[in-house]
Amino acid sequence: MRNEQAESSQSSAPAEADRGARRAVTLFPLLVLLAGALGLLSPGTFTGGAEAVPYLLGVVMFCMGVTMTPQDFKGVAQRPWAVALGLVAHYVIMPGLGWLIAHALDLSPQLAAGVILVGCAPSGTASNVVTYLARGDVALSVSVATVSTVLAPLVTPPLTLLLAGEYLPVDAGSMVTDILKTVLLPVIAGLLVRLLAGRYVTRALGVLPWLSALTIAVIVAIVVAGSADAIKSAALLVFLAVVLHNGLGLALGYGAGRLARLGEPAGRAMAFEVGMQNSGLAASLATAHFSPLAALPSAVFSVWHNVSGALAAAWFARRGPGATAPEKE
């Protein structure tokens, strides 16, 4: 009887975690909007908070690491072609779009660097859940998100230097160090905790999405407060840049998956892995290396890509799962 209860408890934990993640993603845009409004209306409340942003991001990435398992990395070895395509699409399409949009809209150097930095960030932390809601290929989504995060210290700084260096000085070496400290090390620590204390961690999985959402909301409030004076004049332009960046990323990501004949579910996963960014990391790097104004696109992206992701997932889900084409080897 006790064994049956234990098995029932263990089997229900992932389901509860999944429900918690879906609720967090659904309510996350409202939470971030509220945080942004607080930062805008009462910027003094968050004065000095910029120094805490890297540590807050570390909390988010630790939560991500805790949700990971060795199976996530096994999926990379099982589908190297699809994962490699996802990585190339992510780190080519979004940085390139950021650069093109910055030029097309004639953004100021600070805003241009911020938009490009968002594009150079790894996949967003909510992309896996949104892929699930869209009836996409969750295994591929998890694999691409995992590897893009692990490779971020090697890819994000040089891409930022290449594309944003014409606008502002970029210290790529210092950026590598910051990403290692705020992204890779917390993720590894979370993964180790999951491996060493999996039984206890499983019980808390439902809380982790909410902790991540609240932490990102605080980051957004701090970023908005730091550039509150500039938002009134730049908000519409930044919003246009973010909508174009995210929307084109979703469309081109989906198109890349379909063009490669990976199948409809994989195409949906590619859409979200390309179009949704780790805007919390971009905000942290922009605040540390550029200015609070450069972090504004990241704050807006944090809100918008969850709204657009939820809408796109609902649209995909209504279309049904779709047919799966054979995967290339």
UniProtKB/TrEMBL annotation:
Protein name (Swiss-Prot/TrEMBL): Bile acid:sodium symporter family protein
Organism: Streptomyces albiaxialis
Taxonomic superkingdom: Bacteria
Cross-referenced InterPro entries: BilAc:Na_symport/Acr3 (IPR002657), Bilac:Na_transpt (IPR004710), Na+/solute_symporter_sf (IPR038770)
Entry's localization field: Membrane
Gene3D superfamilies in UniProt: 1.20.1530.20
Transmembrane segments: 27-46, 52-69, 81-105, 111-131, 138-159, 179-197, 204-228, 234-254
Record keyword Transmembrane helix present: yes
Membrane topology: Multi-pass membrane protein
Keywords: Membrane, Transmembrane, Transmembrane helix
Pfam families: SBF (PF01758)
